[in-house]
Write a structure and sequence with these properties.
Length: 357
């Protein structure tokens, strides 16, 4: 549910999926359903607004209006089944062969999808949405709901991932490594991230029923393998160029596979930034972490006195009361001024009977 750290992964269950890619200070939409309308153009989007953009693509409301022309309003009763956001650090651009749209990314500050994840979990708690957050370089994993059963076999630590690279079905058998080495630490970090992408799609194919329920999925993945290769070998090195070409091809296939698994109702987003403007802060989360109380400042687990839904509820109650009051006044006025001889059937029948007598 969260996007934290330089190499974190996250998955949340949702009814439709979107594929959006950001390359080197840019945001690129790889895949999106027809009812999610991304307009082609050079409109810049701020890094801090990406969580709001993800929320809007999934049909959720946000606290502040997003005045950005790149995304148009879609149908009210259609929303993607899942959203996949991939952040790639250490690269200016990726040569993604196919995409829906691409936008410049300005103010590339660190951001998280905590708010989106909390919205998904609160609205679809009974459907146990899938939430997966994985950071291979930091050996960090967070899963929620059905993710505990689906991704229990997903390698978590670097030692597990390296062991996975030597097993059957490893990406090493199909990738053109060229100048990359199977023994260098930085190279193995990059290859481990590619292996995790491959294993995620493989597990989703094995559990296709997850893409057919009514709870949305949210995937948040952050890759830092290219950043380590750039720091060790330099951007002009053959290792860095080969890794960039491999990652572009893998991300393209990853987006297509996820999009197809969710019945062409997914959005996949890829963000590529050379470096964030401020250091990214991370928060450790245990797999067995209990749900936090809604108001941490209260020992009695009391709700907040105010939230952004207050204005909506207030207007609904206010205008409903005004409408009912006007209706009561109108009915009372008509009853008070009613002529029994003409407006009442009872009195009208009585008058006729009197006249006949």
């Amino acid at each position: 549910l969260l996007l934290k750290g330089s190499s974190q992964w996250m998955i949340v269950k949702s009814p439709f999926i979107y594929l959006v890619g950001v390359q080197g200070d840019s945001l690129t939409v790889l895949q999106a359903p027809e009812f999610v309308s991304f307009q082609k153009g050079d409109w810049p989007v701020s890094g801090e607004k990406i969580p709001d953009l993800v929320a809007l693509t999934m049909g959720f409301s946000i606290q502040e209006d997003l005045s950005w022309p790149g995304l148009q309003a879609g149908p009210l009763f259609q929303r993607p089944r899942a959203n996949v956001l991939v952040v790639v650090r250490g690269v200016d651009s990726l040569a993604l062969p196919q995409s829906v749209a691409s936008y410049p990314l300005e103010n590339p500050v660190p951001f998280t999808l905590d708010s989106v994840a909390e919205t998904v979990h609160s609205l679809f708690a009974e459907d146990t949405p899938v939430v997966l957050q994985l950071a291979p370089s930091e050996e960090r994993l967070y899963m929620l709901g059905k993710a505990n059963a689906v991704f229990e076999d997903l390698p978590v630590t670097l030692q597990q991932i390296r062991a996975r690279l030597s097993q059957d079905g490893s990406v090493l058998a199909s990738l053109p490594l060229n100048s990359l080495s199977r023994n260098a630490e930085a190279d193995l970090l990059f290859l481990s991230e590619v292996q995790v992408l491959h294993d995620i799609t493989a597990l989703l194919q094995r559990h296709r029923h997850l893409a057919k329920d009514h709870s949305p999925d949210l995937y948040s993945l952050e890759l830092s393998g290219l950043e380590e290769l750039s720091r060790l070998y330099g951007q002009d090195s053959p290792q860095y160029r080969d890794a960039t070409a491999i990652l572009a091809s893998v991300l393209q296939k990853f987006g297509e596979d996820v999009y197809a698994l969710y019945g062409n109702s997914a959005v996949v987003e890829v963000v590529t930034v050379k470096t964030f403007e401020v250091p990214l802060t991370r928060k450790s989360r245990s797999i067995l972490e209990s749900k936090q109380i809604s108001n941490p400042g209260s020992p009695y687990n009391l709700a907040y006195k105010y939230n952004f839904h207050y204005a909506v509820v207030f207007n609904i109650v206010l205008w409903l009361m005004i409408a009912l009051a006007l209706a009561v006044i109108a009915v009372s006025y008509n009853l008070w001024n009613m002529d029994p001889g003409y407006d009442s059937i009872i009195y009208r029948m009585t008058n006729q009977k009197i006249r006949m007598d």
